[in-house]
Design a protein that fits this description.
Blueprint (H helix, E strand, L loop, with lengths): L2 H19 L3 H15 L6 H12 L7 H14 L2 H13 L5 H17 L2 H19 L3 H11 L10 H9 L6 H7 L1 H22 L9 H26 L5 H18 L8 H31 L2 H12 L3 H18 L2 H18 L4 H15 L7 H10 L4 H23 L2 H9 L3
Helix pairs in contact: 1-2, 2-3, 2-14, 3-14, 4-13, 4-14, 5-6, 5-12, 6-7, 6-8, 6-11, 7-8, 7-19, 8-19, 8-20, 9-17, 10-21, 11-20, 12-13, 14-17, 15-17, 16-17, 16-18, 17-18, 18-20
Amino acid sequence: MSIELISILVLFISFFAMLGYGIPVAYSIGISTTLTLLLNIAFIPGITTVAQRMTTGIDNFALLAIPFFVLAGELMNKGGIANRLINFAKSLVGSLPGGLGYVNILAAMLFGAISGSAVAAASAIGGVMTERMEDEGYPVPVSASINITSSTTGLLIPPSNVLIVYALASGGAASVAALFMAGYLPGILVGLALMVVTAIIVRQKKIKSAPSVSLKRLISDFGKAFFSLLMLVIIVGGIVQGIFTATEAAGVSIVYALILGFAYKTIKLKDLPAILLESSKTTAIVMFLVCTSMAMSWLFSFESIPQLLTGFLVETVSSPFLIFLVINLTLLIVGTFMDMTPAVLIFTPIFLPVVTQLGMDPVHFGIIMVLNLCIGLCTPPVGTLLFVGAGVAKISVTKIIKPLVPFLIAMVVVLMFVTYFPQLSLWLPKAFGL
C-alpha cells in the first residue's frame, strides 16, 4: 500500500472517527490534517505546516465580509426588523386560507435575506409566529416545521455569508456578485415549494382564513418595512453594479442597520457591548473553521484527492446525470452530520474539479451545494435549525420529524430541478453580465 493511500485513509478515518466521538468539527479537521502530514516524510513538521496554512488561509480581504455581515445580522435581529416584516407579509398573504403559514415563509425569506442568517430568521420569526399560528389552528409541530425549513431561504437569497465562503473555497472560480444573483430564483423556488406543502396541510386541517386587510393597512405596513427592505436593494445592487465589493457592502450594512436601530428606537448605546460580544463569538467560531478547513483543503490538493475522485467517477459512472446525482446524495448525507460552513470548505475543493470537468458552471454548483446543505440544517442529528426551531416552539425534536418530512421532500424536489436545469441559477447572473 502506497504512502499516498495510507495518508488518505488516515485523513478520512481519523476525521470521521473524531466527529463520531463528539469532538468539535474545527478540532477534528485540524487534528486529522496534522496526523496525515506527520505520516509524510517530506512534511515531518506537520504542526508547523498546518499553522502556516491556517494563517495564509484567512489572509484574504474578502473574508472580512463575514464578521461584518454577522454583526449586521445581530443588529437587525435586535433592531425590531422582524415584526415589521411579519406585519408586511401578513398584509400581503395573511388573508389567504391558513395565511399565517404563508406569512411565516414570506417573512423568513425577507428577514433571512436581510440578515443573512438562517438561525436569526428561525429564532426571530418563529418566536413571534408560533403562538399566532397555533391560535389559527396550526399544530405546533407543523408551525415549527414551516419555520425551520423556510429559514433556510435566507442562505440562498443574498446577502449570504455561506455564498461568500463558497466563493473563497472555489479559489476565485465563482465571484460573490454572480453567486448573489444566482441565489435569487432557487431561494424563491424553495419558498414557493414550501407554500405548496403548506396549502395542502391547510386543506387537510381545514384551517380557516383570517380577515382581509384594507389597502390603507397594506400601504402602511409596507411603509414601516420599506427601509428594512431597501437594505437588500442597496447591498446587492451596490455589489452587482460594482459600486462596492462584498466586504465594503458588509460595512455599509452595519452602518445602515445601526441607523435603523437608533431610528426605530429599538437599539440603545447600552445594548451595543452585548451585540458586539455575541457577534464576536460567532465570528470566532466561523473563522476558526475557515482556518482549519483551508489547511485541509491544501492537503486535499497535495494528496491529489480531487483528481483521484474525478478519475474514479468518470471511469466508473459514464453518465454525468448519475454523477451529479451521486454528488447530491453524498452532500445530503454529509449535511445530516456536518454544519454548513465546514462542509462547504471541505467538499468544494473535492467536488468542484469533478463537476467543472463535466461542464458544470462553478456558480451553478455553488447554488446546488448550498441548497443541498440547507436541507441538512433541518435534519438530525446535527441540524442546527432543527434544534433552534424546536427550542423556539418549545417542543421536542422527535415530535417535529414526521410533519417535517413533506417540507424536506419539497426542498429535495427543488434541488433536483436546480441541479438539472442550470438556467434557474445562471439566468440572472448572465442577464447582469456577471
